[in-house]
Design goal:
This protein is mostly beta strands and about 170 residues long. It is about 0% helix and about 70% strand. Strands 1-2-3-4-5-6-7-8 form an eight-stranded antiparallel β-barrel. The protein is elongated and about 110 Å long. The mean pLDDT is about 90.
């Protein structure tokens, strides 16, 4: 009796996970700014697995016994993940941030610009909780004016971001 030919069995195919799988957007808030009270929100978009571009928007009203002032902030940063990726990694980058302050009950206006480099990190949990932080030097320039005087100053300061949020 002749042996029946055996059809070849299909081989299991390896599971390929695209390198761009996972979250593409992180939305975070700075808890420290809430003490002013100013709300500072950061939205980061993953351009490629190791590069993110972020936009920072903030605003609020600072009030004490004498002064009441409105604060507006806008900024941007680029983050390159030297170790890991957008989901969890060590990042280096640069940030530019502009802040405008105007007195509500007195004639005072001020503006500041900060530019700096940083090293930082980000961690995203399996359900999206996001923690991130950056630290580095930055050049800070500020000017203020009132009806009777004006002044400006530049100095090197500290860039420090500690944020919490969600990624999807």
């Amino acid at each position: 009796m002749a042996a029946m030919p055996v059809a070849p069995q299909p081989q299991p195919q390896p599971t390929i996970v695209p390198s761009d799988a996972g979250p593409r957007v992180s939305l975070t808030i700075s808890p420290a700014h809430l003490s002013l009270p100013v709300v500072e929100l950061t939205g980061e978009y993953r351009v490629i697995p190791k590069l993110g571009i972020a936009l920072v928007l903030g605003g609020g009203k600072i009030t004490d016994n004498v002064l009441s002032a409105t604060v507006a902030e806008v900024g941007a940063s680029a983050r390159y993940y030297v170790l890991g990726s957008f989901r969890t990694g060590l990042q280096i980058g640069g940030e530019v941030d502009y802040v405008h302050v105007s007195g509500d009950n007195i004639d005072v206006k001020g503006a500041g610009l900060a530019m700096g480099a940083f090293v930082g990190g980000k961690w995203i949990s399996s359900f999206g909780l996001t923690l991130e932080g950056q630290i580095g030097p930055q050049l800070q320039t500020a000017s203020a004016s009132s009806s009777s005087s004006s002044s400006s100053e530049s100095k090197v300061g500290l860039l420090l971001n500690l944020n919490i949020g969600y990624s999807f």
